[in-house]
Predict the structure.
Amino acid sequence: MSAYLKKSLGTATSLKKGTWSFWVKLTKLGGGMLVGNEVENDNNRGYIQINSSDKLRIIDNDTGGDNCQLITTQLFRDTTNWYHFVFAFDTTQSTASDRVKWYVNGERITAFDTETYPAQNIDLKIFEGGQTNKYHIGSLYASGSGSNFFSGLMSHVHFSDGQQLAPTVFGQTDSVTGSWDIKTDPTFTLGNNGFSIFKDDNTITDQSTNSNDFTLGGGTLLATKDNPSNNFATLNPNIIPKNSQNTGISSGNNRFTNGNAIWQSECSAFGVTSGKWYYEVQFQNNSGGDRRFRWGYQIQDFVNVSGNNSVLGGSGQAAAYFATQGYSASYGAYGVGTTQTDLSSDGDINNDNSVYGFALDLDNRKMYGHKDGTYFNSGNPSTGANGIDISGHVNVGDTLFPAFTVHLSNININFGNGILDATALTGTTYNDADGNGIFKYAVPTNYRALCTKGLNQ
């Protein structure tokens, strides 16, 4: 990813005190840069990042010497939930460890592999203004452009210039679930360079009273429904396909590319055991010829399987549809120990960019699929008519994971975040039964998007 923000910092309220609050969801390991500020050159700058070892790191240096360097012992490898990071500085503190306070989901970090605190009352380069467009969010300035780009989503990014703040300014513990939840309208002292961005969708105009607006330095910012309050399913980048050549996950972990003439599989870590669920997947031809894909749910998450077992429905129990083109053009219901149901009368997959839906009813043990809004076998998940019985496919109580297998194909998945093929859905769109998510086609009655209140534990 190469999207980043830039601006020119004015005169700081303080070069000794400041607090950043970031809500982030990683899309791959080694998440990259959160905030960076170059003052004169590489030897006079400060930045905070998730480094290539998946650890939080700050460097603040002056003429090649480190004013400060901290690297956490804790690893940050969760690509399924939102993290809340608070970085609070005050070099006037008499106790060295109090000069830099870091918090993750409300808990203070106390274990560091590298632990060099700034001297008392020292000015930090990361706060210093006066340079042109060298203050970056999501990258580090490098020769007039960005580098070390952040890989993931950001929401509710705040900065207080001149204050060392507690995480409770920006978040709170849910009294029922015990999870760490977002405060969507935090109150804090801004200072000269303080700001609030990404409070609403992908807005980089400062939504505080300061008007400290950012500009887009590169790449594209997409508005997504995925946020700290409603955490949507995504593909799991920690799954390595059995032959990773010409494969990849992108677009916020909602696009899977396979240029190989073999099956490759990916899934989400979002598991369901009951209820009614809906998602959409868009098919795109990659290399022509024998293009095939399967979409549905499986009890395995593909992490510890290989060979033919890594194909959706190849091992364990599954509820899935498959479509093929090349050998034959047909649809079918697929499950271990059952015979495929030929649905070829409903069409084929010769048309790129068609959108296929999957409605899973675990309460009544049925599944439904559609192509471009027309359900196979005249099914109607809203009424329960003509659904395919999955009782022979999966056991009651099994945890099912949304899963996909592709062959010389690309697929874009919309779990409800409203993006297909790296483009936000426009025109007529639909929400689920809870008013969540954005879909291209109507969501069946009482079906939900694959999202949940973010449990940032």
Summary: The chain has two domains: 4-218, 231-452. Residues 77 and 334 are 33 Å apart (CA to CA). The radius of gyration is 24 Å.
